[in-house]
Amino acid sequence: MGLIKKPVTGMKDILPSEMEVREYVIRVIKETYKKFGFQTIETPSVEHIENLNSKQGGENEKLIFKILKRGEKLNLEQAESETDLIDSGLRYDLTVPLVRYYSNNSSKLSTPFKALQIGSVWRADNPQKGRYRQFYQCDIDILGEASNLAEIELILATTATLGKLGFSGFEIRINDRRILKAMASYSGFEESCYDRVFIILDKLDKIKLEGVEAELLESGFSKESVEKYLTLLRGLEHAENPLEFLTETLGTELEDSVTEHLKEIIDSVSQTKTADFKMIWDVSLVRGMSYYTGTIFEIAIPQFHASCGGGGRYDKMIGQFTGTDLPACGFSIGFERIIMLLMEQGFQVPQTEKKVTFLIEKGIAGEELCKIITDAQKERESGAQVSLMRMNKNKKFQIEQLEKEGYTEFKKFFKDSFKL
Q1: What does 174-229 look like in DSSP terms, one character per residue?
Q2: pTM for the structure as a whole
């Protein structure tokens, strides 16, 4: 069998033109988030398998790239189950590693702690447009802040970043897991069935109310519970003030503070935002991760008919490591989908420095070549980006290719006319 030149399925080679855009986007993300007080951290790509399988990652726990034990620890002959063979895996997100990181280093960190983490994650998923098996995530999290100031800051920082990247007219959809649970309880669904109900509700924008009703009944839920649930959803659809309608209808099933908390986030962000977007309360927003305990939100960009990032509050997760719960909230921007949209739009990285090419005819060498290199060094010291290369026979095509890479100035050196 010969060597294979294509990358592994679900992963990709990145060409210089895209790499330039990726580096620019990362630069904008870091600069913007740091202005909001977030501090950069880094965690290992490999995580303990116990942490990855802690039943907090939802469906992602089925997509772990698992790593075999090494050396003497790997005993294939005596292994009776997978746990005898595996002790770690590639991280499937940045939240689980962050929580472990904080639990291990909290005595050295400020409170609240505002973390910024950018890095690759891996999921053994079915590849499709905008979805890969290795991809970048960019997360900001606030640990130790119980008030909704955390959500407000996270949303404002993320939307400011999107605005600086040229996105406008998008939406931040927001909901609260406590509202979802209160609605399900009010309707008479068993708590053990909530996740099944939420999965169906999450399809509301695609299958409409009739489709939600049909799927709930097909799933075996009682007609009485389904009818009560649908009556509630229809009421929300036609209510002049949906949040007030919800509070009045659910009564003791839902604390007033939950909707007040949500309303304050929406109002505060809407009044202080620096980018062009709308805050939308979406009762069908569920978010897949089982570790969310309260507010949840996601980015909806018109050009892409899927989430381009999301997050929420996960107040119980740190307690799994330390035994003591700590309020925590995070927002992850959909880096790969943002890059894909920018590339499709033909996005050009703003050039802040001059890009010059020194085209040198073959045969120029020795002192003549050293003089050219010295001139190039002086240009670099003055702030220009300078690339030295030999002339091709087809100089016109060579220059056209360089222009596509952003070079705007060309200095040509020919042996016959060269003078020291």
Answers
A1: EEEHHHHHHHHHHHT--GGGHHHHHHHHTTHHHHHHHHHHHHHHHTT--HHHHHHH
A2: 0.88
Report the candidate in 270, 196, 203 with the shortest Cα–Cα distance to residue 233: 203
Q: How far is CA 409 from CA 305, 349, 359, 394, 395, in A?
A: 41, 17, 11, 18, 14
Picking from 176, 187, 182, 174, the residue whose alpha carbon sits closest to that of residue 247 is: 182
Reduce the secondary structure of 48-96 to three states and give it as a string.
EHHHHCCCCCHHHHHHCCEEECCHHHCCCCCCCCHHHCEEEEECCCCHH
- In whole angstroms, what is the distance from residue 195 CA to residue 180 CA? 10
DSSP code, position 355: E
* CA dist., res. 287 & res. 317, Å (int): 16
Residues for the chain: how many in total?
420
CA nearest 338: which of 208, 194, 193, 167?
A: 167
Sheet holding 66-68, edge to edge: 46-48, 86-90, 66-68
* C-alpha to C-alpha distance for 374 and 5, rounded to whole angstroms: 39
408-413 mean pLDDT: 91
- Nearest partner of 265 among 239, 238, 297, judged by Cα: 297
CB 386 within 8 A of CB 407: no
Both structure tokens of 410: 């060309």
Residue with the two structure tokens 């705007």: 408
Alpha-carbon distances of 335 from 21, 61, 103, 307, rounded to whole Å? 11, 21, 26, 11
- Cα–Cα distances (Å) from 67 to 10, 64, 260, 408, in that order, read 18, 9, 46, 48
Residue of 100, 125, 159, 196 whose CA lies nearest to 297 = 159
* Residue 24: its H or E element: helix 16-35
Nearest CA-CA partner of 167 in 336, 300, 34: 300
Half-sphere exposure of 201 (CA within 13 A, CB side): 26
Integer angstrom CA distances of residue 46 from 65, 89, 120, 282:
10, 6, 11, 36
Q: Which H/E stretch holds residue 134?
A: strand 134-143
H or E element at residue 345: none
Peptide bond into 97 cis (omega under 30): no
pLDDT in tens, 227-286: 999 999 999 988 999 999 999 999 999 998 999 999 999 999 999 999 999 999 999 999
Residues 6+ apart with CB under 8 A from 27: none
